[in-house]
Amino acid sequence: MTAPVPVLVLNGPNLGRLGSREPDVYGSTSYAGLVARCTALGLELGLDVSVRETNSEAEMVGWLHEAADAKIPVVINPGAFTHYSYAMRDAAAQRTAPLIEVHISNPYTRETFRHTSVIAAVASGTIAGFGLGSYELALRALAEQLTTR
């Protein structure tokens, strides 16, 4: 039996407020519920999932450096950083393992400023618009990528 592959699931600003923040857009599941769903699916897929959330751009950049240095795959929901954080984009570009961008809502059905992602061009792929299922789809895609590498 092989050891589970470490994976970081990184969440940007305001995602810790899931369940109370705009439930019509982000659903009613709490952040703790998201963590439970991701870690449980990770176990099924042979992934050791660590879920983190920050409102700090600097902390997120540090986590991306950590992942690059250790060749850890990443699922990232950059939140509002998606649209303007070139520091985060540059950190994500240093990836040494797959990196999948996720969004709970579909940014293209929302305000115009949300239509641009500075992360997408350096990600392995982007999954958006499936609620918290976007994370599950990303973890499944990541597991698939890791088995075909």
UniProtKB/TrEMBL annotation:
Described purpose of this protein according to its UniProt entry: Catalyzes a trans-dehydration via an enolate intermediate.
Origin species: Kitasatospora griseola
Family, similarity comment: Belongs to the type-II 3-dehydroquinase family.
Site entry (Transition state stabilizer), positions: R21
Catalytic activity: 3-dehydroquinate = 3-dehydroshikimate + H2O
PROSITE patterns in the record: DEHYDROQUINASE_II
Gene Ontology MF term list: 3-dehydroquinate dehydratase activity
Quaternary context: Homododecamer.
Binding site for substrate: N77, H83, D90, I104, S105, R114
GO biological process: amino acid biosynthetic process; aromatic amino acid family biosynthetic process; chorismate biosynthetic process; quinate catabolic process
EC number(s) stated in the UniProt entry for this protein: 4.2.1.10
Pathway(s) where this gene product acts: Metabolic intermediate biosynthesis; chorismate biosynthesis; chorismate from D-erythrose 4-phosphate and phosphoenolpyruvate: step 3/7
CDD domains noted in UniProt: DHQase_II
InterPro entries: DHquinase_II, DHquinase_II_CS, DHquinase_II_sf
Keyword tags: Amino-acid biosynthesis, Aromatic amino acid biosynthesis, Lyase
Protein name per its UniProtKB record: 3-dehydroquinate dehydratase
Active-site residues, as the UniProt record annotates them: Y26 (proton acceptor), H103 (proton donor)
Gene that this polypeptide is encoded by: aroQ
Amino-acid biosynthesis as UniProt keyword: yes
